Amino acid sequence: MELLGHLYDGFAVTLTPFNLTMLVLGVSVGLFVGAMPGLGSVNGVAILLPATFAIGEASPTSAIIFLCALYYGAMYGGAISSIMLGIPGASTAVATTFDGRPMAIKGEAEKALIAAAAASFFGGTVSVVLFTLFAPPLADFALRFGPPEEFALMVMAFATFVGLGSESILKTLFAIAFGLVLSSVGLDIISGRPRLIFGEITGFMHGINFLVLAIGIYGIGEILWTIESTKGKVTVSQAKVTLRSIVTTVKSLRSCIGTMTFGALLGYFVGILPAAGATPGSLMAYGMAKNFSKTPEKFGTGIVEGVVAPEAANNAASTGSMLPMLTLGIPGSPTTAILLGGMIIWGLTPGPNLFVEEEEFVWGLISSLYVANAAALVLNIAFIPLFMTVLRLPFTILAPIIFVLCVVGGYAPTTTMHDVWLMLIFGLGGYLLRKLEYPVAPIVLAIVLGPLAEQSMRQSLIMALGSPVIFFERPLSLMFMIFAIMLFILPLAKKYFTVRNKNKR
Fold it and tell me: What are phi and psi of 171, to 5 degrees?
């Protein structure tokens, strides 16, 4: 009953005229952001975060509701360009192209779009209910955390990228190390002395703003990558969505309930892990759906199961990634890393105490996820004809618009040209890293978690008079450190057994 009371209070916050307007606006913008090749939820939240500063000063709840609604909308919208163009709007929608695009080529674009929207709604609903049930207990559990536990948890977050990521171990470690170096630029958190400011470059005194890095890598870098990968050759499929096609497709999805449920549960629990968020969840859901299917050979030829599995998973994962962000202060995805930074800017401290000190904010945000999920479903289907028109615009027109938004977003936080130039440098660097197949998500995660990890580590060492044994003396920190070590060893173990099996053959 107490949980229902909190939800009732949360809906009272969400359904105020201003917050509801921000939510619908966020979903609408997010749908277009997700549908545009080269954007996606990370870029959209990064680029539009500065625009919410004025709102955040007056009401952080309204600003976060807007950004979370944008996140939800972008997850829905990603399927549109995947199906209609064959170009995923973001990495989270890559798996949707495997069967979504073949369906569109076969003349079933409207069926694929409706199935993707319905699966997204199903996955979002399952994940929000799980989020509501698990968030308070996890927050109560996290109240036991001290500096050693916090540092061990940060180490586990970085280890997750190494152990569960699909990229090279060395490349992932390099990306994490690079992000940690960037996070240490500025003033020392204890002595106050400047670090890595490169002589007299005063712009580095305030450190490297994570937003500048995120916009550079995910905004400018993705524009350059999309221009190179598409070369302007994009064909838009035709789709005409009617009430009859919606009803017919939804009825046909009854046979996919099991696939959507499995995808939603898998995506949610993968999303909780502080790794790459919805991308691995959607790819894993697609792979598992194919493995468990009675007709796995049909996957990739254009079947609806290949669309609903990743779409249910990536929307569930987007909600799941918010759980560790709110309860532990650790983002579960690159997008929630940016949301975490926004919350800190607005004076909110994510973690277990948030549920006690900012109860109205927390439950207002949770209830907004229910409303945003329903709004995204309705607006997604209603806006499909408009999406078709926008997607026909040449990328030569869209790219300059995105670039201008990136420059404004990079300038807004500090209003200095230093950060604009830095953003452009990071954009070029992000493009080169993508070319060289280096993961960029660990860099964003490291620059957000770096200061928190450094602070908790130094506090722990001061408590233990410089002895690192403190991280292995306390039960919780010991458990996290063991998990972290296991995750670091996991890729090496996989490689060893792979080589061993080859030698046996």
Answer: -65, -40
Q: Helix H segments across 143-209?
A: 147-164, 169-183
DSSP run (H or E) holding 62: helix 60-84
Cβ-based neighbour number of residue 84 at 10 Å: 26
Please give the structure tokens belonging to residue 40.
């996606």
pTM of the predicted protein model: 0.67
Cα separation of 148 and 474, whole Å?
8
| Residues 41, 34 contacting (CB under 8 angstroms) | yes
The residues that bridge with 195 in the sheet, in sequence order, are 186
Extract the residue ranges of the chain whose pLDDT is less than 50.
276
Inter-residue contact 326 to 286 (CB < 8 Å): no
- Cα–Cα distance, 505 to 499 (Å, whole number): 10
Q: Please, are residues 53 and 62 in contact by the beta-carbon 8 Å criterion?
A: no
Contacts of 363 (CB under 8 A, 6+ apart): 6, 7, 9, 10, 13
- CA separation for the pair 101, 473 (Å, rounded): 53
Burial class (CB in 10 A: 0-12, 13-18, 19+), 251: exposed
Q: What is the pLDDT of residue 149?
A: 81
Rounded CA-CA distance 361/445 in Å is 24
3-state secondary structure at position 235? coil
| Nearest CA-CA partner of 149 in 505, 460, 381 | 460
Closest by CA to 307, choosing from 31, 34, 99, 83, is 99
pLDDT in the model for residue 78: 78
The CB-side HSE value for 323 (13 A sphere, CA atoms) comes to 28
Instruction: Output the CA–CA distances (angstroms, integers) from residue 130 to 48, 123, 124, 161, in the order listed.
Output: 28, 11, 10, 24
Q: Taking the CB of residue 289, how many other CB atoms lie within 10 A of it?
A: 28
What pLDDT sits at residue 419? 81
Contact predicate 439/167, CB 8 Å: yes
**Going by C-beta distance under 8 Å and a sequence separation of 6 or more, which residues neighbour residue 159?**
483, 484, 485, 487, 488
Separation between Cα atoms, residue 451 and residue 448, nearest integer Å: 7
Return the beta strands (E) in 320-452 as ranges. Answer: none
